[in-house]
Amino acid sequence: PGRHRQQRRGQLDRDPPRGPYPPLGYVPFAEHAFGNGDAYGLYWPVGREGHEPIVVEMVHDEGRLDPVFGSVEALLAAAEGVDADHALEAPALDADPRSPLACLRAAKAMAHDDARIDDAIELLERAVLVLPEYGQAQAALCMQYLRRHRARDAARAGLAALIAPPSFGGGSQAVLHRLRGQGDTGDASIDDDPIW
Q: What does the alpha-carbon distance between residue 143 and residue 3 come to, in Å, rounded to a whole number?
């Protein structure tokens, strides 16, 4: 905890920090680092350690990880022609359709349009398919499910948002407030959950 080591370009940190932040599964690298401890890193979502990682941006002063790129290939495409000493822009949805952050941003932009709620839900579902512990996206998904009167789905997404790591926006008080008093969902896997 609290240690910062200088990394050399082209190398992963073979001894990443251990503890609640950054979470296990995060391995930083030096290219395109922002400085002041903020850097990109590979992240393997919980339960998907045997699959390809996504690329997250550590914003260490805020204790946050932003899931910027949906794959290493998307990062490499964005980095093409950009000096390794310069930070990268977060991709737009059309440049990286698997980017959880791009999906969340696009969904938030359309969520206030009643005619686009289903489109927003589709994007949020994609974001949490790529990164199930993305608390911000789970919270937004919960709210959109509530707008569509999908109580079971809202409860599932809300529970996922509450137990998600804080570094990915977990523990949403807004979700807790909205779900309080929802009652039984008719789904034992939810109704029997001690958090519910």
A: 38
* Strand (E) or helix (H) holding 121: helix 117-130
Sequence letter at residue 12: L
Burial letters 141-170, b for 16+ CB under 10 A, else e: bbbbbbeeebbebbbbbbbbbbebbebbbb
User: How many Cβ atoms from other residues are within 10 Å of residue 112's Cβ?
Assistant: 9
Helix H or strand E encompassing 125: helix 117-130
93-114 per-position pLDDT tens digit: 999 999 999 999 999 999 889 9
Locate 92 and state its tokens. Answer: 């737009």
The Cα–Cα gap between 101 and 168 comes to: 11
pTM exceeds 0.90: no
CB atoms within 10 A of CB 113: 10
What is each CA distance from 27 to 11, 42, 100, 187, 190, in whole angstroms? 10, 5, 18, 37, 33
